[in-house]
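Methods: example folding runs. The two proteins below were folded one after another, and each record is reproduced exactly as written to the output file, sequence line first and structure-token line second.
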Amino acid sequence: MSRFSRRRLPIRRSFPEPSDAGVAPLAPDRYLGWLARRQWTSILAGTLYDTIWLSGLALIPWAIGRAIDEGVIPGDLQRLLLWVGVVLWLELQHAAIQGIRDRGGIINWTRATFRSLQHLGRHVAVAGQAVARRVASGEVAATVAGDAMGVAHLYYMIGALTASVISYTVVSVLLLGASVPLGLLVIIGVPVFSGIFFLLVRPLRARQGEQRAAAGRMTSLAADTVAGLRVLRGIGGERMFVERYRERSRATQHAGIHVAWPLAAVEGLQLLVAGILVVALTWLGALFVLDGSLQPGELVSFYGYASFLVLPIRLIAGAISVYTRSQVGAGRITTILGIAPLVVDDGDHGPPALVAELHDPESGVRVPAGRIIGLVADDPAETALIADRIARFDDATEGAVYWGGVATRRIPIAGLRERIVVADSEPFFFTGTLREQLDPSGRQDDAGIARAVHAAGADDVLDALPEGLDTAVTERARRFSGGQRQRLGIARAFLTDASLLVLVNPTGAVDAHTEGRIAGKLRDVRGGRSTLLLTSSPLLLAAADEVHVVRDGRVVESGSHSDLLEHSDAYRAIVRREEGIA
């Protein structure tokens, strides 16, 4: 068994393959060619397998005709056995190559699929916010799940298309050698009839594009509905969204029906073209046998050729249909790949010292090294804009931010993201164990994770899980409540040990008692590091060294929580409104 495994190992192929760093072109046809160039060796191998497979089928009628004319009619047993052996060899070759050519086609399809998925995944990860602003999440999901695979089908069909042309040429040569009129019928008739397929390409492409767009809109609505299902149930809005989904579903259905007409026409033309060729070849061949210009075995071969030609014609038509779908899918993929990230990673300066002062001149916000600073505004969108500028989430925001005296736009993104961490109020969780969710980098031991969980007031969440940190967490951590997810998100933020940690409304879904515990632990867990709190919670603001009040994007007042409560009417109104909500 081990020797067998070693023999099989060289032909095994693992997916996905290491991703190349090439930049994909943004035109659909050029993107299809770009994919082909990156797997030309496997495409060439698949084409060779398909050619052997289809050419062998094309030669079977010829060998049968030779067996009749050279063996059966003259009664020559030796020649009969020779040609029977040739027929048997061609059939065995066909059976053997069938599995190999399927494997080759699947390899080509898989390679192209994963390459598109890799480039889409990498680009969405880098330009995520820009993509989210321009393309609905459901559309992105439909592109990843459907278009990448649809485009890859083209590379499965390239070999079949090439082999169809080659086998058509082989049959034409054989026909011309036996009968020039019949050969001309095939050589001229097949291209003429096959050209009709191209008349359907434009309407087929347009309707497939409409159907794909309708499916994307339906998927987007479904994704948004599922994401807000709990809220919808709370306000009784399920019925309205179900009806909206039904409308989108009906629109997708109608678009699919419109696609069906050109597809049905292609299928019908396949049968029509093949039928015309069969009838013409059979009728003319019979006439030539009667006048003695054609041998009976050659006529039998013509019958076989006529039946065989159905296959390459269907493959050619199928390849045309797949190509039109691939163009539509490639257009969707390149649309996403063409969305530029919101930031340009062209930094030429390393990050400052581990703890350094951050200054945002545009707003006047200063975060001294190792201090806890609160940021309050009557409109939370104002402080969120400042956080985006500090973390450099969008280069379009005006003004430069200086960290340790260095403009953050000069610092490479990787270094900036590692040292400045923004924790949103709604933390996102992927599929994996709880340990992987809290410490994705794997730098902390269980004791360190437990300390962060305790500081985030999430001991009860961890204690309630029989498998503890090994508990499987599904996407978005739906098994946990909003407050539990928020506390786990705080624990994850603490575990980053960021030089500057920006907490955006970190306790909005947490009760006042737990919020007080988190505030009490904040200074201990963040000792020696800088922390910026974007919140109106009086419990958290009381733990800050200094609080800035922002109005119209600028700091208008600063002081301790107690001083501002005593002297600032605006600050007092914001905090008391928060207390009233609590």
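Second run, written to the same file directly after the first:
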Amino acid sequence: MASDPSNSPFFDLVSNPRFIIYLVIFIVFSVLGWIRAKRWTKEENNSVFDAYAGKNLQNMNLPEFRFITHETTVQEVIAKLGLPSRRRKLSLDSVVEKQTVGAYHLNGMSIPVLEYDLPYSAAVMVMPEYPGNPNDKIRAVFYRGAQADEDAPPGAQAEEDAPPS
């Protein structure tokens, strides 16, 4: 006996408003999660850009990365540490204001990033001088601590995320 889907309580939204309530709750939480992820990504991108602009080497408390200096090349880093977990390009358009991008003719420029994963979702981002060829020297190293717990605010684990001293 085939059942008629129009007689199912699942499709009868008038007599079963819980479906609509759950759907609205799901949509609201999905949008909030997307906004939160986008905000955290932007904050991280800004921190990475600040390290790149300031030529910061945040590697002194990370023993396997201490050999990296401003004179080290990308090729030497890969020879010593192996291939990175990820290679990505951080677009300057995403971190610098549109006026600045236009004024300095930076449209389409991006920072090359070699990302090495560490335990507990931490990572070290090694950034060479632009354009990021094997013989280019390292400009900055950025340490991204372990990802914050879902319920905790982004700065809640700052002390736990600090590299070991």
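Comment on the second run: Residues 149-165 have pLDDT under 50 and may be disordered.
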